[in-house]
Amino acid sequence: MADPVAGVVAGSTRLTVVGSGDAFGGRGCNAAYLVDDRVLIDCGAPVHALLPRIGMDVASLDLVLVTHFHADHVVMLPILLGARAFGDEPRAGLTIAGPVGTREYVLGLLHAGYGRHLLDLVQERVQPRWVVLQDGSSASLVGYTVGAHAVVHSTGPSLAYTVQRDGGAVIGFSGDSTLCAGLRRIVAASDLMVCECSGWTAPTEGGHLWRGEIEQLIAEYPQTRFMLTHMRARGPLPGAIIAHDMLSVDVSAAVPSGDGGHDRATA
Q1: Phi, psi (5° rounding) for residue 239?
Q2: Domain range spanning residue 105?
Q3: CA distances for 250 relative to 10, 139, 230, angstroms
C-alpha cells in the first residue's frame, strides 16, 4: 500500500499541525490544526502569532471548526477574532461551526475578556457566520464537505469531524474522545486520522484515548493512516505519525484497488 502522506502531491490536501500538545503537559502548543491554509480545526494555540511562521495570517481563514468547549481547544478563538478585526486588511465573512452553544460560548468569552466594544467591532468587521453541527451532520462549508459525529468526552457536547475538498483526501479529527461509536465512524471514513493520544504508558482520566487503544484502532482500520496528537509524552508507534508543532504534510485520497481494498493515490 502506498503512503497517503507524501512530500508534495498534486491535488493533495495540505495539513499543518499548529499545536500538538495536551492541555497541561507543555510538550507542544494546545490543539489547533490547519487544512489548506483555509480551515482551522480548534483554536487552543495562539494561532494569530503562529500562522505568520508558515507565511500566512488569520485573514486567510475561511472556516473554524470547534470540537468542544474545553479551554485548550477554544480559548484562543476570541484573540483570533480580535486579530482579524484589527488586521491591516480586516476581512469579513468568517464561518465558525461547532456543537450547539458554540456562538454563545465564544461570544461570551470575547465579552468577558475584552468587553462590549471589541465584541461590537468583531461583529462589524469580521461578521462571523455561525453554523450548528451535530451527530450525523454533513455540511458544505466554504467549498469543503464537513462531516460530524458525536463522541464521548468529559462533559458537554463534543464532535469529531471529517474534512474533504472536491472529492480529495478525507482528513479526520478526533477532538478529545473515548473509544466510542462516533469516533469509529470518523476513523472508518478517513484517509488520515488526526487522533488524540493523551495517555502513553497507561489509560488516562477525563475521557481520553491512550496508546493501547490507538494500537487497537490501527489494527481494526488498516485502510486509515493515523497521526497522533494532543500528547503529553511521545514515542514511536508503528503505523502512526507522531505530530509536532508546525508539522506540515500533504495527504492524498484513497482510491479503490483491484481487490476491493483501497490504495493511497500519489502523484
Answers
A1: 90, 0
A2: 5-264
A3: 9, 23, 20
Q: Is 211 helix (H, G, I), strand (E, B) or coil?
A: helix
Q: What is the pLDDT of residues 172-193, one digit of tens each?
A: 999 999 999 999 999 999 999 9
Counted domains in the chain: 1
Whether the predicted pLDDT of 4 surpasses 60: no
Q: How is the beta sheet containing 225-229 ordered, strand by strand? A: 138-141, 144-150, 159-165, 170-173, 192-196, 225-229, 240-242
Total residues belonging to the chain: 267
Specify the DSSP element, H or E, that contains 183: helix 181-189
Grid coordinates representing 185?
465512524
Give the Cα separation of 25 and 114 in Å (integer).
Answer: 28
Report the C-alpha dihedral over residues 222, 241, 53, 165, rounded to 10 degrees: 0
Taking Cα atoms as reference points, which of 73, 80, 126, 118 lies closest to residue 99? 73
DSSP state of 30: P
CATH of the domain at 166: 3.60.15.10
pTM over 0.85, yes/no: yes
